[in-house]
Amino acid sequence: MLSALREVQIPLLAVLLISGAVAKAGRAIRVRGAAWTSPTALFPLHLRRPLAIALCCAELLLGGGLLVTAGSFGAGTPAITVRALTTLLLATGVGALHELRSRRPQAGCGCFGELSHAPVSWRVLARAALLAVAALGTVTAGQLHGLATLTGTWVLTGIVVAEVAVLAALSPEIGEVMVRLGYSEPCELRRIPVARTLATIRRSAQWRRYRRYLTDTEPSDVWREACWRYVVFPGIAEGRVVDIVFAIYMQPRRPAIRAAIVDAATDQALASLTIPFQRSAPPESADLYGSIKESQ
Amino acid sequence: MQSHGGQVRRTEEFRHGCDDYAETSPPDKYTRRSLLRGAVLNPSPDPWIRPPVRERTVVSGQIVDVSPHVLILQTATGEQRLTLTPETRAWRGTAVRPAALRGEDHVILRTRRHPQAVERMWAQIGRVTGTIVESRGRELVVDEGPARGRQIVLIDAGSMRQVQVRFPRIAPGYLIDVIGMRRPGYLLALTPATAQPPYRAVHPPVPPLVNGHVPEQVSGTAVWHEPGGEPPDLRGIAYPALDPETGCERPGEPDAGRPADPHDAGPGCVRLPYLSVGSAVQIRNECCDAAAVLPVTSCGAASRLFCDRCVQCGTSPRGRLADLTMTAFIELGGNLEDGCFNATLSLPG
């Protein structure tokens, strides 16, 4: 059991090191700001980039080295060297994260690129310490023998599942992934093209009601405030020049639409022509910038 | 170094209709937006209307004469005589006695009502915020974004060390924000307004995702900018998060001569609701508990590049919420030489 526990650490550590290196490299390529959320933030500015690159390369090489030396190829001194260096890297990481937490409490560890932007917490420290201990245990593990029995397979699977569960519990990155998977952009930040807004308005009941007052079907003004977009059309009503204003909620499907007519000269709303918003159910309260649950 | 002869403005054709209060003639369409919005949804405070009674007012103009007790200023509405007291504080590159100000200096000042007197005044103050495009020793060319163009900055020899402490990388591609004396054609930089971010200008950190709704109140930093082409007494905000559909955000065409557009750098490090020119925003100065409803008057995309904090009273959360006009900044109790105040932004109504 103990030898199985030690052996399973090697591929686990390799996967974590390689995925961490890939995530860091991916973020560095995207933003060209490799040092922003990593322990290299502790170092002077001119050293951060080369250290970040060195760290990424070290993780990649050691992760690959663990896999290559896991079997008979590289057994002996090469395997021990790679595992010892991995232990050294991870143990240094524990110290660096502790230092980062003390001196730059708002900085993320950057362990898995942009998923690791949350400040370093005790969970991250515990995870790093656990991995360092796991790496230490692999130094004298010898080469991986594989599994000869079904019982051994179940034991190994159980160990892997348990360890992955513990690591996941200690990883804030899991929460970040879940947030990204279930993320829904708030209406204040939603991007909807103006052309789509206009098409929605032109299909609406309000458009059919006010269409006869319009002197131009192209808007004279379009603007947006948080969860609402406003579209103004010029028109004539009751012998007066008017503006017909449509307000449409920033929602991709079946958005709420409201409309009003305003005298262009006196700035008074023509209440006699403004048809109240009608719906079958009692209207939800809708403040200027808040959410609204009613639909068109 | 190529001479740019001072501020180089982008013409309207480059901006393809990007909303800007100062560059739209007439600007009535922006001032009517709050009224039209109120007609179709719930009315909210008109940001263009100044409160009739204010504890502080802002006056700007050119000095005609100054003595220990009286300041005579030539303003847009004519000559004004203003009372100076022993408590009046003046800035001209550094703190000076009011009587040390010079005739023909352009000043902007804050007066208080009770008793009516000048509280603070700033002579020939200027600020440059943006991306370094060229650098040669103490001479820089800084790109302030598509709306404001490029500025020439000369770092004062005596201030070079102080600036370098806060901005260790004075090199193309890095951000800079300095306050100093406005001279013909350039800014003499005297004070760093913030600390330089460690990232390059076009790659600020990505803000955390926001689920549900954007918080009703967002805290961060409020800064200020020079009028440029705006009316000098304009009270307003260059807002960092104008609706992308306004035309300010468009695929940047590569230009070997200028850095990437700040609009291409993403939303910045604080998520703000999308608004438009003419929208009303309430800004509260947390340092002196002054608040005002102000209109959005232009695009402040360059503010997205900075993820700095203001430490005037405590430490603010990261991110610039609003780039105020000088009048608005002073009226809210800010001091121009400080560069910022801790602020909270909310939407009225």
The counted number of beta strands of chain B is: 18
According to CATH, the homologous superfamily of the largest domain in chain B is RlpA-like domain
Q: Could you tell me the radius of gyration of chain A in angstroms?
A: 31 Å
For the CA atoms, what is the radius of gyration of chain B? 20 Å
Specify the biggest β-sheet of chain A. 4 strands, antiparallel
SS element count, helices of chain A: 8
Total strand count of chain A, please? Answer: 4
User: What is the residue-averaged pLDDT of chain B?
Assistant: 83
Distance between the termini of chain B: 51 Å
Number of domains of chain A: 2
Sheet with most strands: strand arrangement of chain B: 3-2-1-6-7-4-5
Query: What's the level 1 CATH class of the largest domain in chain B?
Result: Mainly Beta
Largest interface, C-beta within 8 A = A-B, 51 and 42 residues
CATH topology group of the largest domain in chain B: Barwin-like endoglucanases
- Please report which band the strand proportion of chain A falls in: under 5%, 5-15%, 15-25%, 25-35%, 35-45% or over 45%: 5-15%
